[in-house]
Design brief:
Number of strands: 11
Helix content: under 10%
Number of helices: 0
Order of helices and strands: EEEEEEEEEEE
Shape: globular
Strand content: over 45%
Length: 121
């Protein structure tokens, strides 16, 4: 299993970024996918999740209305569009497949390298 996150960078307060995650080594279309983030000194936080056929999406309260998760099963890729970014969004962002409901999601497999998002004030 390989997960390749990309699209992070340095952006100003209020800016936007689009993260991508290319997956391989498993049948992508069968799994719910998610984005987590981890800020320095903090635990990993589930930010957004999307069901296998994009029927359902869920978001952490902290990003609702600003972030949008989507996926392209033909490309085995999941995306995270991040708008109206705030300094508190600064973190390393990771994608991973999950099982279970959003509130009790269980990450499956190994984590990728992640992509760093830094929002300046």
């Amino acid at each position: 299993v390989q997960l390749g996150e990309s699209g992070g960078g340095l952006v100003q307060f209020g800016g936007s970024l689009r993260l991508s995650c290319a997956a391989s080594g498993f049948t992508f279309s069968l799994y719910s996918m998610s984005w987590y983030r981890q800020a320095p000194g903090k635990g990993r936080e589930l930010v957004a999740a999307i069901s296998s056929r994009s029927v359902m999406t869920n978001y952490a309260d902290s990003v609702k209305g600003r972030f949008t998760i989507s996926r392209d099963n033909a490309k085995s890729t999941v995306y995270l569009q991040m708008n109206s970014l705030k300094p508190e969004d600064t973190a390393m962002y990771y994608c991973i497949r999950i099982s279970g409901p959003f509130t009790h999601a269980v990450p499956l497999g190994s984590w990728g390298q992640g992509t760093q998002v830094t929002v300046s004030s």
